[in-house]
Amino acid sequence: MRHSPSGGAGHGTAPADGRLLSIGAVLNLLRDEFPEVTISKIRFLEAEGLVEPQRTPSGYRKFSRADVERLAYVLRTQRDHYLPLKVIREHLDALERGEQVPLPAPAQPRDLLDGEPPAVDEPTATRVGRAELLAAAEVGEAELAEWESYGLLSPASDGGYDVGAVAVAKLIADLGRAGLEPRHLRAIKAAADREAGLVEQLVAPLRRHRNPQTRAHAEATARELAGLSVRLHAALVEAALRVRLH
To answer: Which of these three, 53, 88, 108, is where a domain ends?
Structure first.
């Protein structure tokens, strides 16, 4: 039997009277502290072995107080410390053995406009396979296939993905949990393609130069322009939202 981790579940604590909860009730409890959590996320964490709810004869999940606290621990650790599920599972196993588990200092949120991209914990390899991408984004084959059908991600001829696809997949997954479907993201992808095309036009003369240093300067210039484009995009979105929400 699994035991709850130390630290409790914050605002999302199940009743202490032993009653079992449906997945919908668990979702309502957790959303006090984790408004982005979804039933799909809870099911995914169950599939990964991080929680083991009981099942009724008809197959419905029933969660105990300890289950809710485990889920809250997982979600809190992901949110505050950006730890992968494998490490969180090891922490939970250690807590069940009565061991103390030190956590890294909470990650500090970055300002979208400070010019620094958010950390995405990308693999160090230049290419990732389909299974690695699915694991990194914490989604299933059906979700990835849908993203590909809308042109949000595209595998190479060998079936692998550029390492940057990991960051894209994670962001698509996060937006999906917030309610944005792949069809909603086509406009963002189209805008990104247009911005990339504009940067490419600007650095094209440098890239055609025979001097290797000049070509290297073209790549550095392209990265700088891309960063400025991202900052401008974020600033424009925030400005538009201020007008609409006030």
So the answer is: 108
Q: What is the pTM of this model?
A: 0.48
C-alpha to C-alpha distance for 167 and 86, rounded to whole angstroms: 19
Residues with Cβ < 8 Å from 41, sequence gap 6 or more? Answer: 177
Q: State the amino acid at position 207 in one-letter form.
A: R
21 with 90, same domain: the answer is yes
CA-based nearest residue to 50, from 32, 66, 28 = 66
The pair of structure tokens assigned to 121 is 């914990």
Task: Give the tens place of pLDDT for each residue, 171-207.
Answer: 898 888 888 888 989 988 988 889 888 888 888 887 7
Number of domains in the chain: 3
Look up residue 72 and give its DSSP letter: H
**Closest to 80 (Cα-Cα) out of 34, 31, 113:** 34
The answer to whether residues 139 and 173 touch, using CB atoms and an 8 Å cutoff, is yes
* Tokens coding 243: 């007008």
